[in-house]
């Protein structure tokens, strides 16, 4: 197994681990995180509580599983919004060219001029805290990312012979785009989606950490970090576990994205 295959395999394994934990939490967790057991607070790992408990006596493993569900769901829907709007917008700009293309790209430049996380904080602060507003805030800034990637990739293919042949055969621009352009840029869009997915998890964790993301009774990794910040001196594990979950998930998605890029890039095929 060469380096690219190993990177992809490791990233896929980490991603599936946390995705599996999130899906499993829909039907089962070791303990109910809505149940407080003050008598069992801040216990260490044991056969009953595999990772220990927090300051309310809640099982940390169960909270990590439910937190994975919230964090991954927010990031996944936000990426879906970006792809659903950004890709058609970018392909349309590549087809139309001219003034419309220029207007869309300059609007993208305007959005990119502001840090995405800072803008997401502003939107959620104005709209109010909550998972739904976090999804909208993160999703809005995925739109220009996918629009720019789709436009650039489509323009790179615009002079290919098979596209010209399809147009000569009488196919319209929409049909040419759907049948010939989109399949040939799909790998690039998928790689970008993994990158935006990891950034979405970081953004959701940041928003929840400052109180603008998921609200009780929902929990997320960022909210767990927020609750643990005042207990770092005597219970550092409360911050260690969610922090490690964020790091490993983001690392897994980035490794998987890098591996996919290398495996699907014809220039890199056959290299170690």
Automatic annotation (TrEMBL):
Pfam families: BPD_transp_1. InterPro entries: BP-dependent_transpt_permease, MetI-like, MetI-like_sf. Its main location: membrane. Keywords: Cell membrane, Membrane, Transmembrane, Transmembrane helix, Transport. The chain crosses the membrane at residues 72-95, 107-128, 238-257. It is a multi-pass membrane protein. It is found in: Cell membrane. Residues 68-257 form the ABC transmembrane type-1 domain. CDD domains: TM_PBP2 (cd06261). Belongs to the binding-protein-dependent transport system permease family. This is ABC transporter permease. It comes from Pannonibacter anstelovis.
């Amino acid at each position: 197994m060469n380096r690219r295959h190993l990177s992809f395999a490791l990233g896929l394994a980490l991603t599936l681990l946390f995705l599996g934990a999130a899906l499993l939490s829909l039907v089962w967790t070791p303990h109910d995180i809505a149940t407080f057991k003050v008598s069992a607070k801040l216990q260490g790992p044991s056969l009953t509580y595999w990772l220990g408990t927090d300051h309310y006596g809640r099982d940390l493993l169960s909270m990590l599983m439910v937190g994975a569900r919230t964090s991954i769901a927010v990031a996944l829907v936000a990426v879906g919004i970006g792809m659903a709007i950004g890709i058609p917008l970018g392909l349309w700009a590549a087809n139309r060219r001219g003034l419309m293309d220029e207007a869309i790209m300059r609007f993208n430049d305007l959005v990119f001029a502001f840090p995405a996380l800072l803008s997401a904080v502003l939107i959620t602060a104005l709209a109010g805290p909550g998972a739904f507003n976090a999804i909208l805030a993160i999703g809005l800034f995925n739109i220009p990312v996918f629009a720019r990637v789709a436009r650039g990739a489509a323009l790179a293919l615009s002079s290919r012979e098979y596209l010209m042949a399809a147009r000569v055969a009488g196919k319209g621009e929409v049909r040419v785009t759907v049948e010939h352009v989109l399949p040939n840029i799909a790998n690039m869009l998928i790689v970008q989606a993994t990158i935006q997915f990891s950034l979405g998890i970081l953004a959701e964790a940041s928003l929840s950490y400052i109180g603008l993301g998921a609200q009780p009774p929902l929990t997320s990794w960022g909210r767990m970090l927020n609750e643990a910040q005042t207990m770092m001196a005597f219970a550092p594990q409360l911050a260690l576990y969610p922090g490690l979950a964020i790091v490993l998930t983001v690392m897994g998605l980035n490794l998987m994205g890098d591996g996919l890029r290398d495996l699907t890039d014809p220039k890199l095929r056959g290299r170690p």
